[in-house]
Amino acid sequence: MICIRGAVTAEENTRESILENTELLLREIIEKNDIAVEDIVCIDFTATKDLDKAYPAVAARKLGITEAALMCMQEMYVENSLKMCLRVGLFAENGKKQSSAKHIYLKGAQVLRPDIAVIDAVAIDGPAGSGKSTVAKAIAKALGYVYVDTGAMYRTIGLDCSENGIDCRDEKAVSQKAESTDIELKFENGLQKIYLNKKDVTEKIRTQECAENASLVARYPYVREKLASLQRKIAEDTQVVMDGRDIGTNILPGAKTKIYLDASSEVRAKRRVGELKDKGIEADFSQILARVIQRDEQDKNREHNPLTVAKDAHVIDTSNMSVDEVREKILAIVRGE
Ligand code: DC
After folding, report:
1. What is the Å distance from ligand 1's center to 239 Cα?
2. At what angle do helices 151-163 and 171-180 cross, to 10 degrees?
3. Which residue, by CA, sits nearest to atom 4 of ligand 1?
4. Which of 108, 255, 272, 280 would disulfide-bridge 232, Cβ 3.0–4.6 Å?
5. pTM for this structure?
6. What average pLDDT values come out for the chain (337 residues) when binned by 10 residues?
7. Phi and psi of 104, rounded to 5°?
8. CB of 128 sitting under 6 A from ligand 1
């Protein structure tokens, strides 16, 4: 007897989405484990509370699974657990050893139980200007991990909207656009390049306008869910240092190391003025400070996955620290010192 575990996330709480995703998961389990339908003895299905429009077991009929005992149960709720997740435990009598079982996790569904799953990743969250990207790049280099900048993905959706005349305050229009936005990440020497509809926009998204549009579109659940599954998928396949606003709390709640970087708004505004100066752009400190405060407001007070400190995060105030000092401090945490 062999038991295969599997999980998948559904796009929406509809009968169609539940059954389509369950079928996809069952097909993958059967194919990857070389199981004949008639050898299946029993399948336990679970669904998270937010999926209640169909019994997932119905999908088994389509695959001709008629003899097996089928059970559907509601998944226990665990804080920060994945949303809209379907799981199965499939038991088959195919003469193979349990050690050969290939468990299947699709669409970013590998961490339903963040309380027991640990991912070899470093999650770095914090407000704009706290030094996340500089430090995250340095940490990734030191560890040989891939650096993933999730803010760039929100910036890219914002760019796509503004280039197509869509108001980033219009949730419906942004969500519709985001549905067809083709975002691709490529990693070269551990660094990320981002492509919008096959065009490299890595540099183009670094403007103040893109940052503000990113913060606006990041409020919408459709946008967040689309990007969340992309982000989880990357961390599934690679060891990452991922930075953003909700990495430790929502995207990778099972990350081995969680860091929350902070700095006073004045220090962060000063850093921004310095960056602009380096690019030959004169900027007014009080104007920049007002924008920093406004973006904080928006990122911390939005309804979906706001910027908050994960319970198990190490908080580092970088106001009076150099990049090297922050880097060393985080590396010491990673090493468990
Ligand atoms: O880190 P950044 O400045 O590139 O991010 C731009 C905006 O994107 C930020 O103001 C909020 C949003 N964002 C988010 O909501 N969640 C993330 N994980 C990353 C960024």
Report:
1. 21
2. 100
3. 151
4. 108
5. 0.70
6. 94 97 97 95 97 97 94 86 91 88 83 65 96 94 92 98 97 96 88 94 95 96 94 87 96 94 96 91 94 95 95 96 96 90
7. -120, 125
8. yes
